[in-house]
Amino acid sequence: MIKDTGLCNISVISKEASFDLFKHFGFQSGRNMDKFDSSFPTSSYETADNGIPCIITGTNAYFSLKVEKEIDLGSHTLFICEPTFMTVLSDIPSCTYEFYQSNIKPKPEKVGTPPKGETIWKCLICGYEYVGEDMPDDFICPICKHGKDDFEKIIR
């Protein structure tokens, strides 16, 4: 979308954000789903003057940006942008990575307690732990909804 329009918005997540906001926007790709479909409440976002949605629930500000330059980094594209609009939505402090890790992200759950030497499959996205020698090929993480490919095998 950014390459096609040359525009984007950035919403600044606040310390009041719920884990559901992180799951909805961070644990799934916009290539596979419309993040602003009916599963995300219309009261939680608004459309900015540039025609692009910005999140207003669990955020404290948003920026509208115009792409000035694109840099191909192989697996990603870096967009250098010029701000065209900015608004402050609240004075609630912004959420840092440390605050997210300590206060918002659920602590990893374990399915059972493994005896020493048993196999654990740990989700690389959210930290959920599945206990068992073999993980089913169709296993979906109950927290972040990622599949078996996003788990690593650990022997404790």
UniProtKB/TrEMBL annotation:
What Gene Ontology terms describe what this protein does at the molecular function level?
FMN binding; iron ion binding; oxidoreductase activity, acting on the CH-NH group of donors, NAD or NADP as acceptor
Which cofactor is essential here? Fe(3+)
Q: Residue ranges of the Rubredoxin-like domain?
A: 118-154
InterPro entries annotated for this entry? Answer: Flavin_Rdtase-like_dom, Rubredoxin-like_dom, RUBY_RBDX, Split_barrel_FMN-bd
A Pfam family annotated for this UniProt entry: RUBY_RBDX
The name of this protein is Flavin reductase like domain-containing protein
